[in-house]
TrEMBL record:
Function description: Essential subunit of the Sec protein translocation channel SecYEG. Clamps together the 2 halves of SecY. May contact the channel plug during translocation.
TM region positions: 53-74
UniProt subcellular location: Cell membrane; Membrane
Protein's UniProt keywords contain Chloroplast: no
Protein name per Swiss-Prot or TrEMBL: Protein translocase subunit SecE
Length: 87
């Protein structure tokens, strides 16, 4: 048996060939298995509570505002001094 659980036979040239039981069945089974594993992982996730989400959103907004103000101040000072140098 191969690593994927399919039968492997040797040809005369020594190459391995895989036998498919039914055409397309492997893809369907793999797709189902994929979505089952995705659902299992989603169940494992620690989802934040409503209050945690509100707090995290507030922190993000506050951080964006502070960083925006810092960039604006830096840009304003550079523009002011650049205008002084060019005049």
């Amino acid at each position: 048996m191969g690593a994927a659980g399919k039968e492997i036979s040797k040809t005369e040239a020594g190459k391995e060939t895989r036998k498919a039981s039914k055409a397309g069945e492997g893809a369907w089974v793999k797709t189902q298995q994929y979505f089952r594993s995705v659902w299992a992982e989603v169940k494992k996730v620690h989802w934040p509570t409503r209050n945690e989400s509100i707090v995290y959103t507030g922190v993000v907004f506050l951080t964006v505002i502070i960083v925006g103000l810092i960039i604006w101040l830096f840009d304003s000072f550079l523009s002011f001094f650049l205008n002084l140098l060019l005049k």
